[in-house]
Amino acid sequence: METIYLEETDSTNNWIAGHENKLPSQAMVWCRRQYAGRGQRGNSWESEPGKNFTGSLLLHPENFPATKQFHLSEAVAMAIIDTLDAYGIQATVKWPNDIYVGDQKICGILFEHVVTGKNITRSIVGIGLNVNQERFISDAPNPVSMKMITGNEFDLKEVAERLAFYLASHTNRLFDETESFHSRYMSLLWRNDGNYYPFRDKKTGIAIRGKIIEVAPDGIISIVTEKGDVNRYAFKEIEFLIDESIL
Length: 247
Known about the structure:
Elements: E1 2-9, H1 12-19, E2 26-34, E3 53-59, E4 64-65, H2 69-85, E5 92-94, E6 98-101, E7 104-116, E8 119-129, H3 146-150, H4 156-171, H5 178-187, E9 197-201, E10 206-215, E11 221-225, E12 230-233, E13 238-240
Parallel strand pairs: 1-2
Antiparallel strand pairs: 2-3, 3-8, 4-8, 5-6, 6-7, 7-8, 9-10, 9-13, 10-11, 11-12
Helix pairs in contact: 2-4, 2-5
């Protein structure tokens, strides 16, 4: 995989979109300073310049059905978890694709797909991994970094190269190992431990206590309430609540 380093840009997702015709079919772009980085739901991504990995992955998958797009999400999540594991950090994936250590968020992922007909013809995957930052000033409720966890300073270039290796390895095996990725995703799913946790149903605004029972191959999550009601949610339809005293 070709890796491109930039000193700064507004957003590596935007940079790839603007230079796509000059890039290979698979590439990773990362930068020292991203001054308009985006997170999920239109939020900004806080990153102190030169402290974290802020980058994007470009993929042009061949004959990849749009109905299987969640398999790509699983492969990317596993690549990030494997990168962290190489540094002795045990992580989990918060549905659908945030990366957590304990109850704290260490990495966010943003997917932008282009679909032609029934297939995904281009994907840009934005990744923000907290590496050496120790103080966060945004209103994000639970950020953490590799340095905060281990007490060690990390070489950003080395982290980027290791991440690129796992991203290439995992995404190149998508067609062959979708079942193993999904099985591993479920085994590393945050709060998928058989216990009940607080959620907010965003369609009704009501807080519930529920237990994860399944994530379907298309990414739909199934949660059973303490009353025995089983509800299925797409992305943005259910919110995990960190504070268990809310109920």
